[in-house]
Design goal:
It is built from no helices and five strands. It is mainly β. The protein has one domain. Bound molecules: zinc ion.
């Protein structure tokens, strides 16, 4: 199940997919930003695979 998160370091969005696991309780897993390499820990039941996504069209805020 993919999830789009925004890097807290560079602000770029990337996709996170949990792979494997599923039978264990959630544990902190490293999640590395594919844009800048910033690493954060995140609770997951498997390894976290990340890949960059294109920046969504930014909404114009009037
Ligand atoms: Zn980043």
């Amino acid at each position: 199940m993919a999830e789009i998160v925004t890097c807290k370091s560079c602000g770029e969005p990337f996709e996170v997919v949990e792979v494997g696991g599923g039978m264990t309780s959630p544990e902190p897993e490293p999640m590395t930003c594919p844009h800048c390499g910033h690493r954060t820990m995140r609770l997951a039941q498997g390894r976290l695979r990340t890949r960059p996504v294109e920046s969504p069209a930014k909404e114009d805020k009037n």
